[in-house]
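During the second half of the funding period, the structural biology subgroup turned its attention to how the target accommodates small molecules. The most pressing case was zinc ion, which had performed well in the primary screen but for which no bound structure existed. We therefore specified the complex as follows and requested a full 3D prediction, including the ligand pose.
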Amino acid sequence: MKFVLVIAVVLVAVWIWRNNRQNERSDAPGPAPRRPASPAPMVACDHCAMHLPQDEAVRGQRGVYCCHEHRRQAEEAAG
Ligand SMILES: [Zn+2]
C-alpha cells in the first residue's frame, strides 16, 4: 500500500510540474509578432517618373522629384 501512495505522490508531482511548465510557456513573452512594416507611400518623379518613397522625394513648386537635379530641370523646362 505504501508503494501505491508513493506512485500517487510522484504522479501528482509530475502533473503539477507539467502544469507549471505549460503556464511558464504561455506566460513567457515569446518573440513579439512582427508587424509587417507599413508600406511607405510612393510617389513618382514628375521628371523621369521614377517611383521612390515619399520621404526621399524632393518637393518642388510643380511636383515631387527623385532628386534636386530633376526638380531643377523640370522647373527650367517649364519656364
Ligand atoms: Zn527623376
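Two results from this model are relevant to the next phase. Residues 45, 47-48, 50, 65-66, 70 surround zinc ion (CB under 6 Å). The two ends are 104 Å apart (CA to CA).
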